[in-house]
């Protein structure tokens, strides 16, 4: 609730009290007053008066606020996202606190870790919360004066900034045909898999059981973990319902998930990456989701098993971890041992 | 608010009044003394009762808000599993919103998808018009009635129809597809539905030009004159909140335009010079693309900038016009 809303509530409360302190004499019709006096005695009657009047005034005020709210149009606060910067600047990637064993606890941020690794671009990572970002989400990057949120925009920004003159590699400009194929593949990954991560981490009973432990590993104090996990469950369920996927029973949800995993597995086939020998944006996105599912250590076995039905997806994830994240994972393991 | 909510609110109000009337016994003597000095002994009992009532009501409201922080949203019918196959002898009834003149399918690109699918597949069907998606088992349109089966969600509807009517068929729309074709179809559908429907919703409801047309649209839906502006404003406000909550609404208009243009460019590239996305015959991907393009180009409700973005792609415009003429000629007689 904003400051103005608090102010409005306080003034309604004050008005209610003021009006009801006048209620016996000025507002109530004599007949009603008499009914109260006869039933409760004069002393109690005037307090009951005041009480009822207060509630009515407060309710009216509240109704007014609520009607006003129904007409309020919410607008995005984010400015247009910059699409290009100066190559000389350094890249800072904003992430959640790190979770050992995975590139990031968030499949969204992992995409950018993967993209930057594929692109061999140096960067530093800072830990923060989503509300510090221009769109209230992570990831976002800081690059010189530019703040760039949203993974699709970040990848476009990096390609526009660093891709000039590149003839191969992930940063090289893509022709329209390749762009279209890569984008359709990314859309396929994004339409169900990220929501499956949310569902199986937070809503599914087995996933939910390990959620407090996951929160604790991210730095949430032990005492609050259970509470935060419960509120998170509520929020995720509401979001899933809003976007549509939460309206399916689990069986239907799994049907949609398998449809997409099967299609992705078919697109990958026996290749090293989705589009041949070099990784693309689509690989950053697919890897990020698979990495979190297979390696976050807290995922419901129901989701892990569904992914493991596709051998090539498991092999693919292992290959990318080994090729691009070996050092980071070794470092995390050493920290845990030490 | 439901009946139980009203009952709870009423019970709570009663408790608040009861406690308020006993406020003298609840307040510490020091506070009571302070109150009497501030407002006088005559008014003090009323003011005391007032404040106490408000506090009790506030605590109750807080409790309710706290409860909401922990409630879990669940499917409307928890054990409803969507059927995936039926009896080909049964009749198909497609449930849709009210139609709009000049449109091949529906004002909804998702219902349009199924109109297109059925027409590509040459499956006879009837249409039932409803005003609210709550008619469906998943609170969404479209859904179909087919014999004893109710099938919601376009992905399930198309799979159901293919499973039911596909036997012996050789075409892409009902017949078997290779793994590679299936992957392409799913990827194309995913791309078409990532940002473009949100662009449509934004330019219909939130962009000034689209929003200006809303009252007239609600008039067509049967909303009486004086209410049209109010209903339009309410829908606009509600959509803005859904937009923001769902994620797409966090984008500035420029970012949304960037996403829309990128996806239109991709679909135009994927179609190229072909008659359909996968070559010579229509597939589920074409049902999806056509369903959306028919809405974008012909619903007459979108803000101009969105329509212009689509019209930049000649092949998409021609594709839509051609499919309207080939498959929807009867329905669109005066508009072709």
Automatic annotation (TrEMBL), chain A:
What residue intervals traverse the membrane? 48-67
Keywords, comma-separated and alphabetical: Membrane, Transmembrane, Transmembrane helix
- GO cellular component terms? cytoplasm
Q: Which InterPro entries match?
A: FAX/IsoI-like, Glutathione-S-Trfase_C_sf, Glutathione_S-Trfase, Metaxin_GST, Mito_Protein_Transport_Metaxin, Thioredoxin-like_fold, Thioredoxin-like_sf
Q: Where is the Thioredoxin-like fold domain?
A: 109-206
Quick check: keyword Ligase in the entry?
no
- Asked if Transmembrane helix is a keyword of the record, the answer is yes
- Signal peptide range equals none
Write down the Gene3D superfamilies for this protein, in alphabetical order.
1.20.1050.10, Glutaredoxin
Metaxin glutathione S-transferase domain location: 258-320
**Which family would the database say this protein is a member of?**
Belongs to the FAX family.
Name of the protein described by the UniProt record? Glutathione S-transferase
What is the scientific name of the source organism? Symbiochloris irregularis
TrEMBL record, chain B:
Tell whether Transmembrane is among the UniProt keywords. yes
Asked if the keyword Nucleotide-binding belongs to this entry, the reply reads: no
Q: Which domain of life is it from?
A: Eukaryota
Q: Where are the transmembrane segments?
A: 47-66
What keywords is this UniProt entry annotated with? Membrane, Transmembrane, Transmembrane helix
Location of the Thioredoxin-like fold domain = 109-209
Ranges for the Metaxin glutathione S-transferase domain?
261-323
Q: Cite a GO CC annotation.
A: cytoplasm
Name the Pfam families on file.
Answer: GST_C_6, GST_N_4
Q: Which PANTHER family does this one have? A: FAILED AXON CONNECTIONS-RELATED, METAXIN RELATED
UniProt lists the family membership as follows: Belongs to the FAX family.
Protein name (record): Glutathione S-transferase
